[in-house]
């Protein structure tokens, strides 16, 4: 059996594949493969481990209908047309749970950094604009005892809620498709409507998967309902918010600040105004980027792929 791997992975993945006698071609160039290159390399393969955001739409999956499995090194699977994968009988694997702590760490880091304008102050040092002590300039806002609203209280949202609750005594409210009784017991978290989440939260942190229903949830209307001192954090997917509406809401002081690990287009343009705002902290989608987490993701992706090729139950198959 032979597979195509779209980016070099931590070694654990290769060890597992070697043990099973599965051979592989790795794309190790500095630029992503084109769609044509992806097709060409995948035509000789039984499966793919996909480690980038390549879009597998109906047309592409039809061309790759011979594949038994596409194993993702991500928890999110919004880049796959799941209905088409079902139609062409291609199994899809993903990596839930193993990256929850690391991603919640980045949400928490962005919240702290945004609340104290940390990236703006760092730029003052390197730009030589430190200047005089300003008793009223560049001030942040405090988080103690405030209300955190989680949009999508799954594994990552729960870790973020725990950190904020334990570090800052924050009250937790959340909006989900279904209630999360564990979080209600553990953190006294309260289920609220979307309108209540927008109106009552001092901080909103977005963690839901990107679907047709959640796309663009944080738009002009939503930002208009939020508190003028609210901070918006997004470490999920950039398309959960409408980027221009977020820019407008920050410029019009409808909300106070934002911390973003994700963008509508990735990589984002270097002229994106969000990169230069005093109250905005941005990172280049590094939620899962720790040595330990990336190794766990590679291990799970390899195990998913091996199970699918050998006909065993995959440890983490995307339900279709
Ligand atoms: C995920 O796993 O979905 C992270 O965003 C990494 O892409």
TrEMBL record:
InterPro entries: D-isomer_2-hydroxyacid_DH (IPR050223), D-isomer_2_OHA_DH_cat_dom (IPR006139), D-isomer_DH_CS1 (IPR029752), D-isomer_DH_NAD-bd (IPR006140), NAD(P)-bd_dom_sf (IPR036291). Keywords: Oxidoreductase. It catalyses: glycolate + NADP(+) = glyoxylate + NADPH + H(+); (R)-glycerate + NAD(+) = 3-hydroxypyruvate + NADH + H(+); (R)-glycerate + NADP(+) = 3-hydroxypyruvate + NADPH + H(+). Residues 3-318 form the D-isomer specific 2-hydroxyacid dehydrogenase catalytic domain. It is an enzyme of class 1 (oxidoreductase). Pfam families: 2-Hacid_dh, 2-Hacid_dh_C. GO terms for molecular function: glyoxylate reductase (NADPH) activity; hydroxypyruvate reductase [NAD(P)H] activity; NAD binding. Its EC number is 1.1.1.79, 1.1.1.81. Residues 109-287 form the D-isomer specific 2-hydroxyacid dehydrogenase NAD-binding domain. GO terms for cellular component: cytosol. Belongs to the D-isomer specific 2-hydroxyacid dehydrogenase family. GhrB subfamily. This is Glyoxylate/hydroxypyruvate reductase B. It comes from Fulvivirga sediminis. The lineage of its organism: Bacteria, Pseudomonadati, Bacteroidota, Cytophagia, Cytophagales.
């Amino acid at each position: 059996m032979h597979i195509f791997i779209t980016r070099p992975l931590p070694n654990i993945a290769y060890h597992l594949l070697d043990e099973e006698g599965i051979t592989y071609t790795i794309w190790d160039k500095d630029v992503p493969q084109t769609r044509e290159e992806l097709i060409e390399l995948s035509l000789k393969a039984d499966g793919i481990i996909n480690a980038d955001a390549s879009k597998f739409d109906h047309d592409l999956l039809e061309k790759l209908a011979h594949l038994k499995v596409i194993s993702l090194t991500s928890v999110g699977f919004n880049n796959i047309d799941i209905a088409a994968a079902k139609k062409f009988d291609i199994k899809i694997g993903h990596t839930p749970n193993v990256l929850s702590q690391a991603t919640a760490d980045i949400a928490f880091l962005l919240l702290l950094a945004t609340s104290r304008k940390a990236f703006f102050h760092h730029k003052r040092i390197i730009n030589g604009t430190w200047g005089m002590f300003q008793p009223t300039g560049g001030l942040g806002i405090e988080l103690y005892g405030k209300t955190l609203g989680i949009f999508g209280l799954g594994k990552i949202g729960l870790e973020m809620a725990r950190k904020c609750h334990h570090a800052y005594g924050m009250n937790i409210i959340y909006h989900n498709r279904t209630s999360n009784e564990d979080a209600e017991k553990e953190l006294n978290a309260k289920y609220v409507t979307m309108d209540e989440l927008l109106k009552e939260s001092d901080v909103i942190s977005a963690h839901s998967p990107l679907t047709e229903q959640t796309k663009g949830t944080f738009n002009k209307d939503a930002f208009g309902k939020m508190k003028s001192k609210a901070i918006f954090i997004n470490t999920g997917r950039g398309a959960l918010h409408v980027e221009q509406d977020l820019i407008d809401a920050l410029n019009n002081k409808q909300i106070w600040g934002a911390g973003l690990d994700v963008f509508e287009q990735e990589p984002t343009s270097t002229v994106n105004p969000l990169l230069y705002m005093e109250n905005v902290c941005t990172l280049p989608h590094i939620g899962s980027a720790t040595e330990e987490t990336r190794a766990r993701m590679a291990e799970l992706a390899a195990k998913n792929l091996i199970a699918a090729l050998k006909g065993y139950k995959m440890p983490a198959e995307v339900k279709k």
